[in-house]
C-alpha cells in the first residue's frame, strides 16, 4: 500500500502564501505599467509582506516578474485546456483557443494586459497558449485539416495576430468586440488552407461555457 502524503506544515503553507502574494502583486504591476520603475519595496507593500522576506523567495525583481509571467501563462493555458477538453477536431480546438484568447480583454483583463506588455518574448514559451497552439496546429496538419509547411511560421502568425488584436481591444474598445475575435479565428483558418465556408462555420460555432471574469 502506498504511503499517504505527509500534511504540509504550517511554515510551508505560510511560505507558499507569501510567495504567491508576491507573484500576485507583480502581476498587478505588470498589467498596470510593466516592469519599469517598480521597486522591491513597492512590490512587498502591495503584497502586504515584509521587505526582508522578499529574498527568501526570489533572488531579484526580474526573477519575480518572470515567475509572475509564467503564472499568467500557465493560468491562461489551463483555462484553454479546460474549455476545449471535449472538442475532438484539432482545427476547432485551435479556433476555439484563438476565440477565447481574443475575449480575454472582457473575461480576464489582467491576463490580456500582461500578454500585450510581455507577449512577444513568450511566443515560443513552453507555457500558456504557444505550446498548445503548436500542438493543435501539428495535429490539424497531420489530420489534413491545415495545409501548411512550417508549423512554427503558423504559430508566429497566430501569436502576433492575437497580441495585436488584444492591444487593439484594450486601447480602442469601440472598434472591436467578441465577434471580431471570431473573425480573427476565421481569417487564421483561411490562411491555414481552409475554405471560406468551413472556416466561417468553425469560427462561429458555440463556444464552451464562458469562464467567469478574472482579476482586473
What can you see in these coordinates?
This protein has 216 residues and is mainly α. It has a domain at 69-203: Tetracycline Repressor, domain 2, CATH 1.10.357. It has helices at residues 10-33, 40-47, 61-84, 90-102, 104-107, 109-118, 129-142, 151-171, 178-191, 196-203. It is elongated. The mean pLDDT is 88.
Which labels suit this protein?
single chain, 216 residues, mainly alpha, Tetracycline Repressor, domain 2, 65% helix
Task: Walk me through the topology.
Layout: H1 10-33, H2 40-47, H3 61-84, H4 90-102, H5 104-107, H6 109-118, H7 129-142, H8 151-171, H9 178-191, H10 196-203
Helix pairs in contact: 1-2, 1-3, 1-6, 3-6, 4-7, 4-9, 6-8, 7-8, 9-10
CATH class of the domain at 69-203: Mainly Alpha
**Spatial shape:** elongated
Number of helical runs?
Answer: 10
The name CATH uses for the topology of the domain at 69-203 is Tetracycline Repressor, domain 2
Structural class determined from secondary elements: mainly alpha
Strand percentage lies at: under 5%
Any low-confidence stretches, pLDDT <50, length ≥5? none
**Cα-atom Rg, whole angstroms?**
19 Å
Mean pLDDT comes to: 88
Give the biggest sheet.
none
Amino acid at each position: 500500500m502506498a504511503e499517504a502524503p505527509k500534511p504540509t506544515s504550517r511554515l510551508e503553507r505560510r511560505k507558499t502564501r507569501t510567495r504567491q502574494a508576491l507573484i500576485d502583486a507583480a502581476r498587478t504591476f505588470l498589467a498596470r505599467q510593466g516592469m519599469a520603475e517598480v521597486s522591491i519595496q513597492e512590490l512587498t507593500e502591495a503584497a502586504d509582506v515584509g521587505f526582508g522576506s522578499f529574498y527568501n523567495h526570489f533572488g531579484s525583481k526580474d526573477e519575480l516578474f518572470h515567475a509572475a509571467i509564467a503564472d499568467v501563462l500557465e493560468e491562461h493555458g489551463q483555462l484553454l485546456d479546460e474549455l476545449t477538453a471535449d472538442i475532438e477536431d484539432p482545427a476547432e480546438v485551435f479556433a476555439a483557443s484563438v476565440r477565447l484568447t481574443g475575449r480575454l480583454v472582457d473575461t480576464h483583463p489582467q491576463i490580456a494586459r500582461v500578454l500585450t506588455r510581455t507577449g512577444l518574448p513568450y511566443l515560443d514559451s513552453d507555457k500558456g497558449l504557444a505550446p498548445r497552439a503548436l500542438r493543435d496546429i501539428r495535429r490539424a496538419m497531420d489530420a489534413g485539416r491545415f495545409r501548411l509547411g512550417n508549423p512554427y511560421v503558423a504559430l508566429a502568425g497566430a501569436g502576433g495576430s492575437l497580441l495585436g488584436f488584444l492591444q487593439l481591444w484594450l486601447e480602442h474598445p469601440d472598434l472591436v468586440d467578441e465577434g471580431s475575435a471570431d473573425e480573427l479565428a476565421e481569417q487564421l483558418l483561411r490562411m491555414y488552407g481552409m475554405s471560406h465556408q468551413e472556416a466561417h462555420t468553425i469560427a462561429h460555432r458555440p463556444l464552451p461555457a464562458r469562464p467567469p471574469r478574472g482579476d482586473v
